[in-house]
Design goal:
Elements: H1 2-34, H2 36-39, H3 51-56, H4 58-71, H5 83-107, H6 116-146, E1 152-157, H7 161-172, E2 178-185, E3 194-195, E4 198-203, H8 207-212, E5 218-221, H9 228-238, E6 244-247, E7 260-264, E8 267-271, H10 280-314, E9 320-326, E10 332-338, H11 363-370, H12 378-383, E11 388-390, H13 397-406, E12 419-421, H14 423-426, H15 435-447, H16 451-463
Parallel strand pairs: 1-2, 1-5, 2-4, 5-6, 11-12
Antiparallel strand pairs: 3-4, 7-8, 9-10
Length: about 475
C-alpha cells in the first residue's frame, strides 16, 4: 500500500511539474509579445509569431525537462533529503534544459525560431512555479505524516550510540513519516530495554525473522565499525527482502564542517571535512567584503582621522597597533587596530588577555575599546584579503597553541577566513567569556554559512550596537 501511495505521489509531482512548465512557457510567450512591460523595454523586431508555433514546441520542451528532472533524482522518494538539495537539483536541471533548448533552436533555427527573450523569461518563471507547487505538495504531505498517515515502518539494526542518534533524528522530524517499529542490538542486548523510548526487540540476527513477518518498509543499519563482520552478515540477510535499505556509516561521528557523502564516478565517497568557501561562494563573499568595507571606510574616514589625532595627543606612541593573528588555513597576518594601550603594555606581563579595569590601557583607549572603535582599521585587512567582514575572530598564535589542545575542534574555525565580527560576537560571546561557547558559535557559522547569513550578522552587529560589557 505504501509503495502505491509513493507512486501516486511521484506521479502527482510529474504531472504538476509538466503543467507548470507548459504554463510558464506559454506565459513567457504572452509576456514577451503582448505585455507592455517587456515590449516597451525590448522592442519586437520581426513581428508577433503565432501562438501555435510555441505550442508545438512543447512537444520538445516537456520531454527534455522530464528527462533532466528524472536524471537529477527529482522523481525519487526524498523523505530524509534536505529541501536545499532538491532546490539545487531543480536549478541545475532547469538551467541545463533551457540551455539544451537554446542549442537545439540555434542548430535548427529554420524550424524553431524561438525568441531568446522568451527563454530568458521562461527560466525564472518555470523555477518559481515548480518550486512553489512542490513546496505546497510536500507541505501537505508533511502534515499528513505528522498526523500518522503515509508512514513507513522502520527497523533499526544497532542499539548503540549511532543507532540512538538515528532514533533521535527520526523522533525530531515526524514530518518524514518514519515509524520505528523496533531496534536490534548486539548479542546480550536485553529485549524490552528502551533506546530513546523505542524498545529493543532482538539482536542483529533477528532481522531475518522480523522481515519475514512482513509490515516493514525500511531497514536502517547503524552498526559500529568494530563489528564489521556482523555488518556484512546483516546486509546479506536484508538483501533477500523487498525492503529499502539505508546504512548510517560509523564515520558519521567524524564528519564535520559540511561533510557528507558525494559521488565520485559512481563510487560513494565520505567527505569528512570541507570548507564552504569555493567557487562562486568565495567570489560573492569577497565582492561583498570589498564593496561594504570600502563604503564604510569612506564614511568613517573623518571619524578615524579624529581618533588618530586623539590617540596622538592623549598618549605617546604610534596611532596604529599591529599584532600577529592566525587566519584562514592557519596562515598568520598582521592585524591593524587603533592603539589603546601603552607602548610597553606586555613588557612585564607577556601575552595576556585584556581584563576589566586593565591598567595597561590609556584613558582614551578604554573608551575606544568599549565602543569597539579600535577595530575600525581592520577594514584595511579586509581590503587586503587577510580578513572578511564576517567570520570567526582571529586569535594570537601564542594563545592558539594552548587552546587547540584544550578545546576539541578548535582548529576547524580556521577553515573560514577570520572576520571583523562574527556569530559568536553578536550572541554575546566576546572578550573574557566561554571559549567553548565561542567555538560552538564559530563552527555553527561555518557549517551554515551563506551570504544572507553574513548580511544578517552585519545587521545584528549594528542593531545591537558596537558597545559590549566584555569589551575591556
Amino acid at each position: 500500500m505504501l509503495k502505491k501511495y509513493s507512486h501516486l505521489f511521484l506521479s502527482l509531482l510529474v504531472v504538476s511539474d509538466l503543467v507548470i512548465i507548459a504554463g510558464a512557457w506559454l506565459l513567457s510567450f504572452w509576456l514577451r509579445f503582448f505585455s507592455p512591460l517587456v515590449t516597451d523595454a525590448i522592442p519586437i523586431r520581426y513581428g508577433v509569431p503565432e501562438l501555435e508555433r510555441y505550442t508545438k514546441l512543447l512537444v520538445l520542451v516537456l520531454p527534455i525537462f522530464y528527462a533532466l528532472f528524472r536524471s537529477h533524482g527529482l522523481y525519487q522518494p526524498q523523505r530524509i533529503a534536505r529541501r536545499s538539495r532538491e532546490l539545487m537539483n531543480l536549478i541545475r536541471a532547469s538551467s541545463l534544459a533551457v540551455g539544451s533548448l537554446i542549442v537545439v533552436d540555434s542548430m535548427f533555427r529554420e524550424f524553431f525560431q524561438a525568441s531568446r527573450v522568451v527563454f530568458a523569461i521562461f527560466l525564472p518563471l518555470e523555477l518559481v512555479g515548480v518550486v512553489a507547487v512542490r513546496s505546497v505538495i510536500r507541505g501537505l504531505l508533511r502534515q499528513l505524516r505528522k498526523r500518522g498517515q503515509n508512514l513507513r515502518h522502520v527497523v533499526i539494526v544497532g542499539a548503540g550510540s549511532l543507532g540512538g542518534e538515528v532514533v533521535d533524528r527520526i523522533l525530531r522530524h515526524p514530518e518524514m513519516g518514519l515509524h520505528v517499529v523496533g531496534i536490534l542490538g548486539k548479542d546480550g542486548s536485553k529485549v524490552g530495554t528502551l533506546v530513546r523510548g523505542i524498545p529493543i526487540t532482538g539482536v542483529y540476527e533477528d532481522v531475518t525473522r522480523i522481515l519475514q513477518g512482513g509490515g516493514i518498509d525500511q531497514v536502517i543499519v547503524a552498526i559500529p565499525m568494530e563489528s564489521h563482520d556482523r555488518f556484512v552478515r546483516v546486509l546479506e540477510a536484508v538483501g533477500a527482502f523487498m525492503v529499502d535499505i539505508k546504512v548510517v556509516p560509523d564515520l558519521y561521528r567524524f564528519i564535520s564542517l559540511r561533510g557528507g557523502i558525494e559521488d565520485f564516478d559512481g563510487i560513494p565517497v565520505v567527505n569528512i571535512l570541507e570548507t564552504p568557501l569555493y567557487g562562486w561562494n568565495r567570489l560573492l563573499k569577497r565582492a561583498c567584503d570589498v564593496v561594504v568595507s570600502a563604503i564604510v571606510l569612506v564614511f568613517a574616514a573623518p571619524l578615524m582621522l579624529l581618533i588618530g589625532l586623539a590617540i596622538r595627543v592623549s598618549s605617546p606612541g604610534p596611532i596604529f597597533y599591529r599584532q600577529e593573528r592566525m587566519g584562514l588555513d592557519g596562515q598568520t597576518f598582521r592585524m591593524y587596530k587603533f592603539r589603546t594601550m601603552r607602548v610597553d603594555a606586555e613588557a612585564e606581563t607577556g601575552p595576556v588577555w585584556a581584563a576589566e579595569e586593565d591598567p595597561r590601557r590609556t584613558s582614551f583607549g578604554g573608551w575606544l575599546r568599549r565602543w569597539s572603535l579600535d577595530e575600525l582599521p581592520q577594514l584595511f585587512n579586509v581590503l587586503r584579503g587577510q580578513m572578511s567582514l564576517v567570520g570567526p575572530r582571529p586569535e594570537r598564535p601564542v594563545f592558539i597553541h594552548s587552546f587547540k589542545d584544550q578545546i576539541p575542534k578548535y582548529m576547524l574555525r580556521h577553515r573560514m577566513q577570520a572576520g571583523v565580527t562574527g556569530w559568536a560576537q553578536v550572541n554575546g560571546w566576546r572578550g573574557n567569556t566561554s571559549l567553548e561557547q565561542r567555538i560552538a558559535c564559530d563552527l555553527y557559522y561555518i557549517e551554515n554559512w551563506s551570504l544572507s547569513f553574513d548580511l544578517r550578522i552585519l545587521g545584528l552587529t549594528f542593531i545591537k550596537g558596537l558597545r559590549h560589557k566584555n569589551a575591556y
